[in-house]
Amino acid sequence: MKKQHHPHRHHFGGRGYFQRVGPGLITGAADDDPSGIGTYSQVGAAFGFKLLWTTVLALPLAAAVQESTARLGLFSGKGLATLIKQEFPRWVLYVALTLVIAANTFNIGADLGSMAAATHMIVPIPQVILVVIFALGMAGLEIAIPYHQYSKVLRWLCVSLLSYVVVLFIINVSWFDVLNHVLIPRLGFNRPELAAMIALFGTTISPYLFFWQTSEEVEELHEHPGEIGDGLVHMRAMRGDVIAGMSSGVFVMFAIMVTSAATLGSHGITQIGTAEQAAQALEPLAGSMAKWLFTLGIMGTGLLAVPVLAGSTSYALSETFGWREGLSLKMSQAKAFYLVIFASMMVGLSMNFIGFNPVRALYWSAVLNGLAAPPLIIMILLLSRKPHVLGEHVSGRLSTTLVALAAIFSTVLPVLYLFAK
């Protein structure tokens, strides 16, 4: 009798959903990291409802890219860096590593800084000390306790992000205008709007999630050994997992953009430079407690996302150099893997001592992710169409088309930015 692959994800619906979800939901939660919250807040405040149509486009494109990365891990049994090393010239691998490591490191630094800035609003401890506590605490936690164990607890902190949804029913929102801007794209082809779109897609279709999703599928294979059995059954379960995760991420994206537009933007706050300004979007719901709600959201998503960012870098380097890897392994079993995680967090930590604005850095880390994503999406597209990599489970026409559109769209935006005024 064949064993079930991903038995906890074999039947995706019904009771016990949160006990059965796989890497897709964690990916979706990590997608709404502090960089995402900062970017969506900034874009909503600066442009109002004008760029809400990007949420409709982002969901199928992001889901298709993550589905392809999950497919690669699920049916090849190899991580993304391993597949790039196997299928492309060595220089391509090094370019991919450079892009993802640079984007991840800056993102870690921005996330750590924003977590410290948000916490400083309610705890009178210098931000420098707070950022050190967060960095060392997360590094120690990830080394001492398997990520999959504590992530089950941490994801409940992210429920505070639903406060942005609740605010929508409290404030005065012109839903006719919202629907109009969701359904009818508007783009001025000027540099501020194009930069905002690069940031939006960069924080929604992020390079670190590509490596993370693939490697986590492989790790689940190792944790639940056995034959894949009915590939179609497990394909459907994987897709349900990925779509659920990305849908939740994009839904929060929509809620934050609308809330920020209707609160901050309508009151003339178009540039968010501090955590206090970002938290004002929640004041219609929580009043003086808005700072607490905002801090919980930033801390919850940061505690989930920073280990994913560092883990993504470590998976990529470990696969490249043949080191033993996996968050389910102990430090003594995968020393190099965990040392890279620790080093990634320490480099990100060091960025907070050079005087950058942590809240503004969230936005620019999203832009950097948007610039790094196109070549990686193209590699994923090519890999997902190779029969000798995926056998009969190569991407179909719809998946290929959507990933190709994601590659084209993410490539065209920076080009348009160069020629815009």
List the defining traits of the structure above.
421 residues; mainly alpha; Amino acid/polyamine transporter I; disordered N terminus
Fold topology:
Layout: H1 17-20, H2 23-31, H3 34-47, H4 53-76, H5 80-87, H6 90-120, H7 127-144, H8 147-154, H9 163-167, H10 175-183, H11 191-204, H12 207-223, H13 231-263, H14 275-279, H15 283-286, H16 290-321, H17 335-350, H18 358-383, H19 387-390, H20 397-419
Strand content: under 5%
CATH fold label: Amino acid/polyamine transporter I
Question: Given the structure, what is the number of helices?
Answer: 20
Average predicted confidence as pLDDT? 85
CATH architecture: Up-down Bundle
